[in-house]
Amino acid sequence: MDEHFDTIAITRQDGIVELRLHHRGGSALWAPWGGLHRELGRAFAGIAADADVRAVIITGTGEDFCAGFDTGVAPPPLSSAMWDVILREGRDLLMNLLAIEVPVIAAVHGAAFVHAEIPLLADIVLASETARFADKAHAIAGVVPGDGVHVVWPMLLGPNRGRYFLLTGQEIAAREALSLGLVGEVLPADRLTDRAWEHARAIAARPPLANRYTRLLLTRHLKERLAAELEQGLTMEGMAVLAGMNISHG
Predict the structure, then answer these.
(1) What's the CATH number where 43 sits?
(2) Which of 39, 89, 101, 117 is catalytic?
(3) What is the pLDDT along the chain (250 residues), one digit of tens a residue?
(4) 84 within domain boundaries
(5) Residue 76 lies in a domain
(6) Could you tell me the residue range of the domain that residue 95 belongs to?
(7) Number of structural domains, the chain?
(8) 2 found inside a domain
(9) How many beta carbons lie within 10 A of that of residue 220, not counting itself?
(10) What is d(CA 150, CA 235) in angstroms, rounded to the nearest whole number?
(11) Which position among 63, 103, 172, 203 has the lowest Cβ density within 10 Å, counted as fewest Cβ atoms?
(12) CA distance 87 to 89
């Protein structure tokens, strides 16, 4: 995995790979085209293909995990061809993450308001006391929540709370996330990264084949659900975006 990424700082040590999301060295920002949307799927694919990896850590930079959008990236002209690219990258984001055959640890600090489902798909999820989870990118912004959040959040929260969460943009703070089972531990911010590495080192010291088969078993139902529902969700999200564009230009 030698590819350079503009939005992901990669550290490798003793079979552990840490992915630290960032925007020009600060807290990560999202763009629905390029940036993290494109690079994360590629990074996950590279890790999945690397037989030397023993554990993976996903974390952020600065005060927030990923709280908003990169407004400095000009959107390309929206078209069916462009949405095909977005669909493919959106599929790769989640399916390539789940294709990683070693345990994944997420360390979430501050606000995770855009694609918070990515760290929550990790096997061990750690949160700082300042962490907050929400989906600010879809329904409350007039966008269909079809890029996997429609699968992950109702699965994690239950059908009724999951739908409420997506439709209202509700924020869930760290302690409530712990009580709901979204995260496994809540820690002071200055302990978060160290604790992630403690878990990663403990996992990396275990028999590789046991780790691999454990990961495959624990992610099997997630892969099945997303394989069944992700592409339809992305297609419907794209149809609504393109329809809205046609109405505004009509």
Answers:
(1) 3.90.226.10
(2) 117
(3) 567 899 999 999 999 999 999 999 999 999 877 889 999 999 999 999 999 999 999 999 999 999 999 887 777 777 888 888 989 999 999 999 999 999 999 999 999 999 999 999 999 999 999 999 999 999 999 999 999 999 999 999 999 999 999 999 999 999 999 999 999 999 999 999 999 999 999 999 999 999 999 999 999 999 999 999 999 999 999 999 888 765 444 4
(4) yes
(5) yes
(6) 8-249
(7) 1
(8) no
(9) 11
(10) 13
(11) 63
(12) 6
